Amino acid sequence: QVQLVESGGGLVQAGGSLRLSCAASGRTFSNYAMGWFRQAPGKEREFVAAIGWSGSNTNYADSVKGRFTISRDNAKNTMYLQMNSLKPEDTAVYYCAADHLGNGNRKVELYDYWGQGTQVTVSS
Fold first, then answer.
1. Closest listed residue to residue 80, CA positions, set 21, 4, 3, 12
2. Which of 14, 37, 73, 118 has its CA 20 to 30 A from that of 5?
3. Rounded Cα–Cα distance for residues 23 and 54 (Å)
4. How far apart are CA 66 and CA 59, in angstroms?
5. pLDDT recorded at residue 74
6. Which tens digits make up the pLDDT trace of 55-82?
7. Which of 102, 103, 81, 100 is nearest to 92 (CA)?
């Protein structure tokens, strides 16, 4: 089992920045690829960004490419999502997830463990 806890969400104005964190406990963090997903009200959960187990492989949704940066610190069992130039359409609950087989997958169904989510609200 891997337990994941997100933090860092909040309310920010358009154009602002937030940094989300995902703290992992349980099994060896560095054995898992990790991902960020988000879900807005009335919409399906969608891929945001993913990172391989070593941190050298990253993958981004087109909608966030150039604005968001995913990273991880295996020594601290933590993954991050730096979000810059935020837009109202980025408003959603953001979830982190762990994938023990992949190396940066985009599909929700390929992830084994999920956090409880953190709310990000971007005002216009």
1. 21
2. 14
3. 16
4. 11
5. 94
6. 889 999 999 999 999 999 999 999 999 9
7. 81
